[in-house]
Structures are given as C-alpha cells and as structure tokens.
Design brief:
Layout lengths: L1 E3 L2 E3 L2 E3 L1 E6 L11 E7 L7 E7 L6 E3 L4 H5 L4 H20 L21 E3 L4 E4 L2 E4 L3 E4 L5 E3 L4 E9 L3 E9 L2 E11 L6 E2 L4 E5 L9 E8 L2 E3 L1 H9 L3
Parallel strand pairs: 7-9
Antiparallel strand pairs: 1-2, 1-5, 3-4, 5-6, 8-11, 9-10, 11-18, 12-17, 13-14, 13-16, 14-15, 15-17, 15-18, 18-19
C-alpha cells in the first residue's frame, strides 16, 4: 500500500500478475510544499520519501454569461450554486462508491479524433465575488462530434444537469473516473461496460456552455487532476 497525505491507497495489477501500480492524486488545490509518501509491503521494508508540490499561477479569466445564457436564467451566482449542487450529487452517486481493481489493461487514448485544447485546466473564472476553478480541459469539437471513452470501464452516471449539461461518468477502476460534459446525446447507458476508444456520446453545447465543445475531466480518488497530463503520465507506466 501507499500512504500519501495521511490516506492509504492500494496497488493494483497492470499488464501482468507481478506488476502493480498505484495512481496518487494531487489536485490543483493541493497545498504547496512537501507531501509525505510511504510505500508499505509485507515482503520488503517500507520506503519513505516526499513529493514536492510547486505553486502555479493559474490564469484568471472572466466568467462569461452571453445574452443567450442570460435569457435561460444563467448568472454568476446561479452558476456557482448549480456547480456546488451538481458536485454534491456526483459525489453521492459516484465518487463515494468503493474502489475496484483496474478495469483496463492498455494505454489510455484521447476522447476525440483531434485534440485541440481551448480551455486550459486550472484556469480561474471570475465575476464579481464569484470565483470558479476550471477543473478539466475544454476540447474543440463541433456539435455531434463522436466522443470516445479514454479506456475500458463501466458507465456510472448519465444525466442532464443545469451547468454541466448532458454528462457521462465512466469508472475505470483504481479510483480513476473520466467525466464528459456538455454532450448532445448519450450512446451508452448507466451500467454498460465500454471498451477503450468506443463511441459513447456526441459532443454538444448543453448546460452552461458558450459554444460547442467537449469538457473532459479526470478524477482520481475524488481529486480532479489535469486530464491531458494524466493520460501522458499513466501511459508511461505501460
């Protein structure tokens, strides 16, 4: 097991029965400084080190509400309230479920045929006293572009919500979940197993969305982390 930030995390087999890995989350809101890490084993002596977390000056942008969105009842305060309520629902329905072993055996793939980042991870969007951090990436996608699951998993959540729009969550095991927001149409239902690269939805412009795109988030043990960095980093383990 790995003890990290006073929490214990399990190692799970990957590629073979003799190789195991653990994915440890460090969110955009993590405290700057040294984070203790101890690897414990019944077969070997424990190993301790620290992970040094550096600060990042995340870009601050405007929390934009277009006339069209305003007519639908969106404003900075309603957006903030909706996000809080939707995050609470997601936690109760998905993120507090027991963690399983990895449901994948291959590298992760991108959710679109072409990946163009048009909304960076960690950006802080502000309007007056409302401040929201963008805990995902916005990827350029015209309406009804095919969206693919980034790896094998089980669809755990499909629902249309006020801010996140039509949203799908896939559990990949090992505490790893992928979120797909602002979709136009679901192609898979809750409880279905999906294979890496399989079409799961069409991109859209639902919820609080300025224009058609795909918002992709990666959540590891309840922590939202940079999706594009995650895919690159975990693929190095294969």
């Amino acid at each position: 097991t790995a003890e990290f930030n006073n929490n214990d995390f399990e190692f799970y087999p990957i590629n073979s029965d003799i190789e195991e890995i653990v994915v440890l989350p460090i969110s955009a809101k993590a405290q700057i400084g040294k984070h203790p890490l101890t690897i414990k084993s019944n077969l070997r002596a424990s190993f301790s080190t620290v992970i040094k977390v550096k600060g990042v000056n995340f870009k601050v942008t405007n929390l934009t509400v277009t006339n069209n969105l305003s007519q639908k009842g969106y404003n900075a305060n309603s957006i903030q309230k909706n996000v809080a309520n939707e995050n609470e629902l997601i936690y109760s329905k998905v993120l507090n479920e027991p963690v399983t072993q990895f449901l994948f055996t291959n590298k992760f793939v991108y959710p679109l045929d072409k990946v163009v980042n048009v909304g960076a991870y960690g950006n802080i969007r502000k309007s007056g006293n409302v401040s929201l951090q963008h805990l995902g990436v916005d990827l350029d996608a015209k309406e009804r572009t095919s969206v693919y699951t980034i790896n094998d998993g089980i669809v755990k959540f499909t629902r249309e919500m006020n801010d996140y729009g039509k949203m799908m969550i896939i559990d990949h095991g090992g505490g790893i979940r992928s979120f797909y927001l602002h979709l136009n149409e679901f192609l898979k239902s809750e409880g279905e197993s999906v294979k890496r690269g399989e079409a799961i939805a069409y991109s859209g412009n639902t919820g609080y969305s300025i224009e058609p795109h795909l918002h992709l988030s990666i959540n590891v043990y309840g922590n939202s982390i940079d999706p594009l960095f995650f895919i690159e980093a975990i693929n190095d383990s294969f």
